[in-house]
Amino acid sequence: MANPLQLVGRITLGLFAEIGRLAVFAGRVKIAAVTPRWYGGEILRQMVRIGFYSLPVVGLAAVFIGAALALNIYEGGSRYGAEQFVPNIVVLGISRELGATITGLMLAGRVSAGIAAEIGAMRVTEQIDALETLSASRYRYLYAPRLIAALATLPLLVMAANIIGVMGGWLVSVYGLGFDSTVYLRNTVDFVTRDDILVGLIKAVLFGGIIAIMGCYQGDRSQAGATGVGRAATLSMVGAAVLVLAFNYVLSTLFVEIGL
Amino acid sequence: MSGPLLKLEGVEKSFGTKQVLRGVDLEVARGQSLVVIGGSGSGKSVMLKNALGLMTPDKGRIFFDGEDVTKANGKAREKMRARVGMLFQSGALFDSLTVWENVAFRLINTPGAKRKDARERAIETLKKVRLGSDVASLYPAEISGGMQKRVSLARSIISEPDLIFFDEPTTGLDPITADAINDLIVEMVRGLGAAAVSITHDMASARKIADEIAMLFEGKIIWRGPAADVMNSGNAYVDQFVHGRAEGPIQPAI
């Protein structure tokens, strides 16, 4: 067995090397995304794939989370006779936290892993080399459109998740817990502030970046063969999900600190 | 213009501790078809990727049309790539695009180009590789391996390059299809007046498409001569390879 200090050192160095590689990669993709030339057709196609086709899965996740949240808040609130706060806390929890987190997590699976598998397969079948020989940079043709599409569509998806999540809570409250529909909706709308919505949308943009970059990064580094591509998909999904949750916490702390 | 179109000078490349290229010197004249033969793992593909600029050599220099492109990027690299075509071993067609979009990829992505014109050019080029317009709208996954090779060939010749690289053009094809591809390569290269650099271990293919043959062994060019001489080269290594004998100075890679 190696010296334990050696092992710790190797792991630490490996971690920093990985962070460095990811940062350099992310920098290159960002530069490609903000400088010409842009492939408009590719950007549009990725927006449809990342944004539009994710709507069902995001909507389904949001409606169930909203419904479960309402039930639990009712259960907890009733211990203090505070059941009437269900709509307020549901809309707060969803718009500030859960709408963005759920969307981020679902897309870490659906989009990040999908991008990694696709790019990985392209790498393995020499399609990425072919792109370069045809004078198209992979950063501009493949990665930047995915980043731009994710940054643009994630806030829209989170907005949809917020609305659908609140509706999930409303469904359970009205049909299961005996709330009056009009009162419930009025409480929701009166309580939620512009800042609450903004918090979720800012998170959405950051999560979009994480999801697209992780997928492209792992795909770009993919090793040969089916195992390599599978590994890239797994790593990107796990990486994106963990980063989404970690940055969600960091941003929540920050927003509470600055009073947003 | 004079001088070789492509020139490799003392090119070395290692991966970790494994040195793959140990000083490759190679010149390709305008309009010349050079075939580089060599066993699996002799560094043929790595040599090709270095020449194309997909990899950067550790040592040595690469010249294209007299210009040093060893570390070229941006404009200089684009200028070279616009004059070079490449047929990948697996075809490397973009599977999210249709056949004609693959063939016309460079045209479609030229700013200001019209899709309709690009499509016509693509169908014209497909005709040259004996494919009808009926395959133009199919996706690469919907056509056979031999057809994919043809489409890929069409993609590499559509912009009429001065130099075309062929990476094992006949690998994975049946002998008849392979021969048809060889004929097409000869026809296209002659038709364009382009230079060609092919790597292969298929001797039938090598003899058919080469003006000259060079052999790569352990990361160096150990022999080069006219295609007609390859069967009687007098070089023990070349002799063993072209006659496909397990016994000889080269150890089988198993």
Largest pleated sheet of chain B: 6 strands, mixed
What sequence of helices (H) and strands (E) makes up the elements of chain A?
HHHHHHHHH
Number of folding domains of chain A? 1
Strand content of chain B: 15-25%
Based on Cα principal axes, name the global outline of chain B.
globular
Mean pLDDT over the full residue set of chain B: 90
- Poorly predicted runs of 5 or more residues of chain A: none
Helix count of chain A, per DSSP?
A: 9
* Total beta strands of chain B: 10
Q: In total, how many beta strands of chain A? A: 0
Structure description:
The complex is a heterodimer of chains A (260) and B (254). With 260 residues, chain A is mainly alpha-helical. Chain A has one domain. Chain A contains nine helices and no strands. In chain A, helix 1 packs across helix 6, helix 3 packs antiparallel against helix 4 and helix 6 crosses helix 7. Chain A starts with a helix and ends with a helix. The mean pLDDT of chain A is 95. Chain B is an alpha/beta fold and 254 residues long. Chain B has two domains: 154 residues, Rossmann fold (3-Layer(aba) Sandwich); 70 residues, no CATH class. In chain B, helix 5 packs across helix 6. Chain B starts with 5 loop residues before the first strand and ends in a 12-residue tail after the last helix. At the A-B interface, helix 5 of A face strand 6 of B.
Task: List the SSEs and their pairings.
The complex is a heterodimer of chains A (260) and B (254).
Chain A: H1 4-34, H2 40-50, H3 55-78, H4 86-124, H5 127-133, H6 138-175, H7 181-191, H8 194-220, H9 225-257
Chain B: E1 6-15, E2 18-28, E3 33-37, H1 44-52, E4 59-64, E5 67-68, H2 74-81, E6 84-87, H3 99-103, H4 105-108, H5 115-128, H6 145-157, E7 163-167, H7 175-192, E8 195-200, H8 203-209, E9 212-217, E10 220-226, H9 236-242
Parallel strand pairs in B: 3-8, 3-9, 6-7, 7-8
Antiparallel strand pairs in B: 1-2, 1-4, 4-5, 9-10
